[in-house]
Amino acid sequence: MATATPTTSGAPTPAHATAIRLRGVTKTFGRGESAVTALRGIDLDIPAGELTMLVGPSGCGKTTLISILAGLLSRDGGDLAVFGTDLATLRRDRLAAWRRDNVGFIFQQFNLVPQLSVSENVSVPLVLKGESVGAAVRRADELLATLGLEGRGKSSPLKLSGGQQQRVAIARALIHDPRLLVCDEPTSALDAELGRRVMELIRGRSTRPDRAVVVVTHDDRIFHLADTIAHVNDGRIDQLTRRTSEPPTAGSHR
Amino acid sequence: MWRFAIKMLFGDSAKFYGILLGLGFASLLIAQQASIFVGLMSRTFAFIGEVGHVDLWVFDPTQSYVDEPKPLRATALERVRGVTGVEWAAPLYKGLLVATLPDGSRQVCDVIGIDDDTLAGGPAEIVAGSLADLRQPDAVMVEVGSSQQQLRFPEALPPGAVPAPGQSFDPKGPKRPVEVGDIIELNERRARVVGLVKCAETFVAAPTVYTVYSRAITYAPPSRRVMSAVLVTAVEGQDPDALAERIRAETGLAALKPHDYSMRTLGYWMSETGIPINFGIAIALGFFVGVAIAGQMFYNFTLDNLRYFGAFKAMGASTWKLLGMVALQALVAGVLGLGLGLGAVSAFGLNAAGGKLAFKMLWQIPLIAAGAVLVICILASVLSMWKVIRLDPADVFKSS
Ligand SMILES: Nc1ncnc2c1ncn2[C@@H]1O[C@H](COP(=O)(O)OP(=O)(O)OP(=O)(O)O)[C@@H](O)[C@H]1O
Ligand SMILES: [Mg+2]
């Protein structure tokens, strides 16, 4: 049975501290006959300042894993510390506040609200933190401009292309400068070229020493952008692949 | 997030207008039916108001509403006049009599006979002629609204003209409204129209014909009991309630202040007829239509937005905040829908004012409609809120 040991030769880069530490994390859905064990004991250290990808066959538990990391789902067993916080100690509303303050989300379905303008969508995390809509929208517009969406703030997200919509979703995930960015299949609704650009954007914006990025993906065309690839299989980490080559510089493309 | 909640509501225009329409329709139906009900019911005692300022009505104790024909003996008047504290007492006649028109057609009229001496209790508004003209021989005054519709004269007969002996008219021929000078027959006796009056709409659909009491009883079929009521004013300083008590004790008749008599009449129609039930059904229908349409639409609206609420929840919005958003959406829709409905009802009321249609929007009615809309909104949003409470933030990663 494979254990969660790095298989790649060469010393692991020690430069970065551990952002998220998982030990023996388990999760079972349902009970009795219909119970499905999604996680069978996950041991994983996700370093700060890096981009970690979770890959693996469908149903292996990737989404379950990032949902637990991001405080959306509770674990059944094991230990978990996210930036030193054990999420199991937080009650539901405290946990929501923790997510609001610490996590940025990028979904496969962009989940942009069609009735709100692009900048309003982006401003939501700030507004949830209590910032006024006016100020939040101004900051959203600034961020959108740096993502190549200058002047699109007032339009409806429905008027944008898929790639543009995902960039709006990225802006929404980043606007409150979260310590943890979680993305589930961020490129699967995009074509190869757009997907790569979006990933470069995520990488360039978020790999900073005190930040961690976790991306679930099937998309092998973006694997090269990862610092670590954790291979998940049947609820366990099968294999860890560490980058050996130089990481591509952020925004090298375009 | 409140602003966003409202934008989400307005932004989904198809559903938003549907919700507004549902709530507007509900409040329209509720307020309009309630107003018509109140208008209609206040007609049951409108005649009491029309008679005007008296302190007491004295009538047969078994009479339960003002139009009920239970006449008193002529001696009742003297007995009432004999009660201490009565300053003035006058007889009143009110009864349905058949009028015959020159073309031979017949029409039931509501004949009112007022005090010969004072002419008190006459119509509020005189359109042609003067009340004093009622003292002329055979004089009557007829209601202008009904006269146009029900007391129609042959066009071939000029106003005031008497048909020549042997002259006859085709009952189906062209007609004109009754005019001053025209002659009709009331119970086979001559009545000359000396004026036109306007009176409050009452429950009696027959055209109202005013005359003096002494003449009215000559039109009425002969009987020892013809006096419909005795109208009384009290001497100055006399408490009307105490006087009423005394009249009751000394004459055995019923004596009520106009307001009390109105309420007794109203009570009769409320308890003895199906009118309240019918309107109650219409109002309940409005309510349920509102619940069904607006509630359904609102629930669908929330369902459509559930994935965004889920995303907000994942992004750290508390359940309370999301429930607040749903409540605000329901409230805003409720206020606008109510405004729409009440606006329509008011327009309807202005349009109906002075017409045949009974319509009376008491100040309580908009409040009742508002209460109903509030209940509809609460019912509508409870299901939606339940969905939001049950929303699992982890579902945001489920591809739909
Ligand atoms: N809410 C749930 N209730 C019951 N079973 C669930 C639930 N969520 C996930 N599962 C099950 O847990 C297992 C892991 O699911 P998960 O969504 O984490 O897989 P995944 O690796 O993200 O798959 P995919 O690549 O298809 O997205 C699957 O067998 C799935 O059916
Ligand atoms: Mg998944």
Task: Label this structure with key terms.
heterodimer; A: 254 residues; alpha/beta; Rossmann fold; six-stranded mixed sheet; three-stranded antiparallel sheet; 6 helices; disordered N terminus; disordered C terminus; B: 400 residues; alpha+beta; 2 domains; six-stranded mixed barrel; two-stranded antiparallel ribbon; 19% strand; binds adenosine-5'-triphosphate; binds magnesium ion
Verbal overview:
- The complex is a heterodimer of chains A (254) and B (400).
- Chain A is an alpha/beta fold and 254 residues long.
- In chain A, helix 3 (118-128) crosses helix 4 (133-146), helix 3 (118-128) packs parallel to helix 5 and helix 5 (162-174) packs parallel to helix 6.
- The longest helix of chain A is centred in the C-terminal third of the chain and has 15 residues, at 192-206.
- Chain A has a single domain (2-242), classed as Rossmann fold (3-Layer(aba) Sandwich).
- Chain A is built from six helices and nine strands; from the N terminus they run E-E-E-H-E-H-E-H-H-H-E-H-E-E-E.
- In chain A, the strands form two sheets. In chain A, strands 5-6-7-3-8-9 form a six-stranded mixed sheet, with helices on both faces. In chain A, strands 2-1-4 form a three-stranded antiparallel sheet, covered by helices on one side.
- With 400 residues, chain B is of the alpha+beta class.
- Chain B folds into two domains: 2-43 and 274-399, no CATH class; 56-256, no CATH class.
- In chain B, strands 3-4-11-6-10-9 form a six-stranded mixed beta barrel.
- Chain B is elongated.
